[in-house]
């Protein structure tokens, strides 16, 4: 608990002063006022986050948290649980979507076993993945809490510790995940935080659950919430009762990055569930989150509304792994390039009349 | 006229066969079905355009067409006309938005004087820009056609010839432009093609015209259309009567790229006006256009509807120059990376059950 509490205490809001300086500088660049729109908003955020008018963003690392979920016993997904483990081999062998998209963005990928069912000892021994395993999957949350409160804390602290280790070589963090069934705990989390009883407006088909089986998924989430009664005012309680280890790990990545005043690009539905846990524990951490994309999973919209974030991209993604974060990362480079390399009206001898 | 007609005749639709092969391949990759959404749609388009399952997209060139507009005499913009020329120096000196964003995307920028008022001879002599000047700006279209039909053809053929020259070193083209006042002819073009009489739903503030002066801009466009009566069935007539040289040049870039089976990333409002001219002359050219972003300029939505295109980005841009095209280009690299480098379920030994 000590690492979590000291991390939360270290999170300060963005610097209003540097935001103001960045805004003034951007208004002097050779273009109509704010004509690069959200790229300029992003530049101001990066300045406010890093306390710099030349924010470092070159060294990127997407931390991919993998875990399994006891709730799959309820038939909430048709994919076998072994796919979580198979996909970790795919990540290590550089064959997955996140591998090629991270490459394309110049980002590293750090794979963490934070709770996969089954052994990954060989990959740990070879240094291919980080061993942060808390347990081999969560418990089935329809019959009790997914994990203990201590495990919830540990999952978040695992994320924080990884960020602290990577920080000396990392300017920008990204979040990613893998875990068969993990749209179910993520849906439960947004259901709890939004205090909605209309689960059908939030719960969607994940990796491809047939429409006819959606009621089963909704019912499992409903039972989990009714049985556990998570307290929406207590992010740790929500995480413990209906969450997942990778979701806690992602919350930790976000809190760790925020404490270090580094931007963190939040991927899609599951990552944003982690962001909601982080927000609940530390509202100021929101200032460090950059929402990468709006997911096809319909509950993502409610999540982003709670976070008051407008995602950079809308590309009908529903893959996870951090792929949306990777796709959004070139926009951070673009924002910094604009802020640091464009000429001012004076420098370029361009008339700024009429703008 | 010969270059224009032979170019149009050379344009064939995308290859349905390669699109099908690409789709089948993408469905075998290690992710839930179509889980990378529009990135996969883009991959299929790039395959269909280039007739290849490994579409070349590395060598990018954004052709920036610059020209002036006689209609500025009507007070449709508050920026002085000399800014067009000043900005060309800014492009050459690498200080503009397009310079830093093209760099960020790994794209070259080719600047063309297709109709700027005032001499740019020194820059032409030094090889810094291409001389394609048709006239030192168009005529004021409220009092007659903006240009002759011959000039309209010549502007398009200038774009085609530049594409043909650049093609041996270019995989992907982008469109860009600079021209004080050019939201006015672009608005007139969409007004004509959409055959709307409600100009206030289309005409917007461009680089920053004060709200109180918008009626003046709308009135100028209305007079231009009423006086010239452009024929919406004849793209050359629309271009000649209410267009601009850079808009014709952009239509030429698009037609040239389409004839060579190369993708062309279409920037914002003015570029899409050029795309509408290209569409009118050659409907099949649409298959080669990739809409980069949805502009803040409200008429852009109507343009994209006529083209039946959903832009890749929505970042509240209103700068032009090709900046939106540059911002979208990394997504083409991402799409090709996914199609060419991800593992299939079989290769990665990942179970595809339940997807």
Q: How are the strands of the biggest sheet of chain A laid out side by side?
A: 3-2-1-4-5-6
Radius of gyration of chain A: 20 Å
Mean pLDDT of chain A: 97
Subunit arrangement of the protein:
homodimer
Query: How many helical stretches of chain A?
Result: 15
Structure description:
- The structure is a homodimer of 355-residue chains.
- Chain A is of the alpha/beta class and 355 residues long.
- The first copy, chain A, has 2 domains: 63 residues, Orthogonal Bundle (5,6-Dimethylbenzimidazole Phosphoribosyltransferase, Chain: A, domain 1), CATH 1.10.1610; 273 residues, Rossmann fold (3-Layer(aba) Sandwich), CATH 3.40.50.
- Chain A is 49% helix and 9% strand.
- Chain A is built from 15 helices and 6 strands.
- A 6-stranded parallel beta sheet of chain A has the order 3-2-1-4-5-6, sandwiched between helices.
- In chain A, strand 5, helix 12 and strand 6 form a beta-alpha-beta unit.
- The longest helix of chain A has 19 residues.
- Chain A is globular.
- In chain A, 62% of the residues are buried.
Give keywords:
15 helices; homodimer; globular; 2 domains; 5,6-Dimethylbenzimidazole Phosphoribosyltransferase, Chain: A, domain 1; 355 residues; 9% strand; Rossmann fold
Short description:
Two copies of one chain form a homodimer. By secondary structure, the first copy, chain A, is of the alpha/beta class.
What are the SSEs and their pairings?
The structure is a homodimer of 355-residue chains.
Chain A: H1 2-10, H2 16-27, H3 37-50, E1 60-67, H4 82-92, H5 97-105, E2 107-115, H6 121-125, E3 130-131, H7 149-166, E4 172-178, H8 183-194, H9 214-228, H10 235-242, H11 245-259, E5 264-266, H12 269-281, E6 289-291, H13 299-307, H14 323-341, H15 345-348
Parallel strand pairs in A: 1-2, 1-4, 2-3, 4-5, 5-6
